[in-house]
Write a structure and sequence with these properties.
The protein has three helices and no strands. It has 110 residues and is mostly helical. The chain has two domains: 1-57, no CATH class; 59-110.
């Protein structure tokens, strides 16, 4: 972001060129500033997500989110023909990969 150098001559043409360069640089800086202001909420949201992810030590957070949605779907869903036993069997079989992942993570920590 260095400013263009001003010409040493008093030639009007060179002075106009320098003025145009200064205006262009000013517009570039304005665009950078405005775009940084527009993207500030997004960068803050990313920073919060990263700090939450690293601060709580939750690994595979998207998998946990999907698992929670699946559990809530099975527990609150309306099963017309299925009883509670078959519902619990479906929950267990659908969460089996997630449980394996948790068990592997617990084994790696030891």
């Amino acid at each position: 972001m260095s400013l263009p150098e001003l010409p040493k001559t008093t030639n009007r043409r060179e002075l106009r060129k320098a003025l145009v360069r200064l205006r262009l640089e000013m517009h570039r800086q304005e665009i950078r500033h405005e775009s940084a202001q527009m993207l500030a909420p997004l960068s803050r949201l990313r920073a919060v997500g990263d700090s939450l992810h690293s601060g709580l030590g939750i690994k595979h957070a998207p998998l946990w989110g999907i698992g929670a949605v699946v559990v809530l779907g099975f527990l609150t869903g309306k099963g017309t023909r299925s009883g509670s036993l078959s519902r619990m069997i479906r929950v267990g079989t659908s969460l089996l990969p997630l449980l394996k992942l948790v068990m592997q993570g617990a084994a790696h920590k030891r």
